[in-house]
Amino acid sequence: MKNDPFLNAQKQIDNVAKYLNLDQKTLARIKQPDQVLKADLKVKMDPASAGQAVYKTFKAFRSQHNNSRGPYKGGIRYHANVSESEVKALSTWMTWKCATVGIPFGGAKGGIIVDPKTLSQGELERLSRAYMRAFYKHFGAFKDVPAPDVNTGGAEMSWMLDEYEKLVGHQEPGMITGKPLELGGSQGRTEATGLGGLYVLEQLRQTWKGRILPKNTTIAVQGVGNVGYWFIEFAKKAGYQVVAWSNSKGGEYKGEKITNEQLLELPVDVLVPAALENQITKDNAAKIKAKYIIEMANGPVTPEADEILHKRGTVSLPDVLCNAGGVTVSYFEWCQNNAGYYWTKTEVFAKLKAIMDRAFKDVWQIYTSKRVNPRLAAYILAVDRVVKAMKLRGR
Fold this sequence. Notes:
alpha/beta; Rossmann fold; 2 domains; 5-stranded mixed β-sheet; 12 strands; about 45% helix
């Protein structure tokens, strides 16, 4: 597989190992998930005509990477390109993401190989419930806490919560996050990932002592899904100029139509890849003109591209920092569910800012003191935290 995401995730761990003097046993342990669950989901489809029921089978996965710092945590995506390698990589990155921002979770990720646009509402519900039936024994508020991801949202989380509670026989809203407010969701969760990225950009601006300024800083955003949309909204309110954007069909730059590939190479101050992984590779890294990259997608920059960008002086702030706002507010939702006490949006945003600001400063301190690229700085911080927890547990 070209640019295999799990091999990329493992290379990143190898890169950090020498800075932490990890022994081979520990290194081998953190390079593999604790467990990868697989299932074939048999789902009843809507009848095309009055006749025999038709069933389709969908392949489903759940990768649980490491739980030494807390329950596994990570989204469930519905996408035709879901693979075992992808969920293993994403679960690994979730471990580092939670550790980078200092929240008490480990990493997990799940997915179903499906194009959800081809399914009706009823079929999506039956698919979501089938996923929970397949894996429910491995989920729980203090085991593994799933959440929305690509092509999933509050509706899927609601169906999964309901199915889980039927199966276990009690209410447990903290077993899943990204829920609607009516079922225990948190204020601010929808905007959280985009807002967290804006907080990182603001910290970067302040760190550079005004060398980039909101009134004249230009930004290009690749991928205007939920994350990209809210990043753009908050960036505009903060005074930044969003001059280019794109979605899966293409984009615009100053009124002109452009491709996703062209957007990456625009002469802007800040590039925000907010789509899918492996967008900046060794093939196009040298063509990137942006001075700064805020990685809002998971794994948008390959390890080879990281090195090229760093040598060229491009500051690429990693996904495990930049897009951690979503999992941070998911953590807030989990806290509120378990306490039975809920916060206002203002409280949520203030708590989010405090965590993102502190995480940026922790990463930046390592970046400047060890003179490594920003991703390596975040990994040194995160892997060290995870390994210390493992050793305290005798693992």
